[in-house]
Every structure is written in C-alpha cells, then in structure tokens.
Design a protein that fits this description.
2 domains; alpha+beta; 60s Ribosomal Protein L30, Chain: A; single chain; 4-stranded mixed beta sheet; 6 strands; about 200 residues; 4 helices
Length: about 200
Amino acid sequence: MKFNKTVLGLVVALVATSSWGHGEHGSNTVWKTTDGHNVVTTDGECVRAFDFASLERDSCHLPEVMEKPVVEVVEKVEPAAQPVLKIVSHEAKINFPTDSSTLDMAAKVALHKLLEASRGAEQLLAVQVVGHADTRGEASYNLDLSQRRVDAIAAYLAARGVKTTSTFAQGEGRPVMDENGVENLASSRRAEVLIKTQVKVMN
C-alpha cells in the first residue's frame, strides 16, 4: 500500500513525541505536543485538527514580522528668556517763582515722581541738573540765581539718597520763547533734571 506523503509525516511526528494534544478546541487549531511544540509533517507543515486529507492546505508557520522603525520624537524646547540691561532716562522740568530758588509744592511733587520712576533700577548712571533764569535783571545776578536753583534741587535729591553727578548753571542764556518770539518768563525760570538709569528687562 502506498501512503500519502503528508499522512506519513503526520504519523512520524506523532510517534516521535511521547504525548500530544491540541492547543484549543476547534477544527482549525494546531495540534501540539504536551510540552507545547507544534506537531509538523516531514514537509515542515503543522498538523491541524480539521482532518488528515487537508493537512497541506493550511500552515501554522508564523509570517515574518517586520519591526516598525522607532521614530524618536524630540520636543523642541524654546530657550528661556534672558534678562538684558537697558538704559532708561527720566526727565522733569522744575519751575520757580520770580527771583526765587525755593521749591514749592508743585516742584516737590514733580521731583518725587521723578525719583519714583527711577526706583528699582539696577544702577543710576547719571543725575544731571541744569539751572536757568529769565532775562530780566543783570546777567551775573541771573547766573547766580540759576546756580541757587541747581543747589536747591541737588539738596532735595541728596536728602532722599540720590547724589547728582553733574550740575550746570545756565543763567539767562537759554530763555523759553513762545511762537511769536516773545519770552515766556514763567517757563524760563526753571531747572531741568535728568536721571539716567540702567534697568533689567526680559529679552
């Protein structure tokens, strides 16, 4: 009697194992030995439970699994903002009564606001005061008057911890003129204060 090649392989496989069974119930499950190995024919095909006549129709060989490439996702991290130093200037014009170097309430309020604006700076780079006078009277007198105005402001700032770095008495040399070319006497009686600071800001 001539045996089917596949059936012969099945018999050899079953004989070669000490005991065997099938992995799960059902007609298309792969038969396995008790130690978990697949039962195969001499052609290397797995034995399934549906019947002997169709052993070569199905295979239990696992398909080759291609591993997907691992894509590394790198999160872009923005650099943190870094502080930079910036120069900021604050200015104020202080007006005086006629023939006076006394700081009135309006002058003190203006100076107070100027100091508050410069608070918190990393450094005071410069504190400059320039005094002026109107053109009435003698030039020498007006020069002295403008110096007294400078001194009054410097003393006010020093009493609040701010030392002037530059002072200058201009006298009557730079009067304030209106649009008609006429001197504005009230505006000419003044002192100009500049505070230059270095502050830290985020870039």
